[in-house]
Amino acid sequence: MGCKLSQLAASEFTNDPLSRPPPTADPRSPLSAKQQYCMLASWKGIFRQIEKTGIILFVKLFQENEELLHLFEDFRHLQTVEAQVSSTELAEHATKVMHTLDEGIKGLGDMDSFFAYVQHVGSTHTQVPGFVADNFMKIEKPFLDAAKTTLGDRYTPNIENIYKITIRFILENLVKGFEEAKKEKENGTSHT
């Protein structure tokens, strides 16, 4: 019924990607495809203020875990919030950490690359004197607080849940990379 043009138009409508369910996410990802999309869309708001968010993260990290400050040679002398907020060294490191998180978040679409990258970053922390795997997990709450501060009213309960799942997954894989590298060092089979 109808001409070829009508049939073609009808077939294009039924092939509309918005009318189909989202593609399935890699089963190794803790996020559904829809959650990954929401994470990436929301993350753009963080990325536009990446340095500010990173500084907030580190200030909160040091407020809640003063003992971690000694691990940072370049800014262990920064004992007050004011000194930390105005420190160029802290801002540079905070931005570097946020870019690492950015790579991890953007890598969730390719789990093989995600695991390789995040676990490699975790393994490099075996070179930091006094660093222990549990230190990674101490970043979770300050990260979530910094994201909430940066996003403001865009930090909805749904976004909060997605951020919690994402940061835990990244931190767990940093820990895994750290522990595997530490074990290799202890066994004398290090590849780094």
UniProtKB/TrEMBL annotation:
An example molecular function term from Gene Ontology annotations: heme binding
Any coiled-coil regions, as ranges: none
SUPFAM superfamilies: Globin-like (SSF46458)
Residue stretches making up the Globin domain: 30-179
Keyword ATP-binding on entry: no
Alphabetized Gene3D superfamilies for the sequence: Globins
Record-given protein name: Neuroglobin
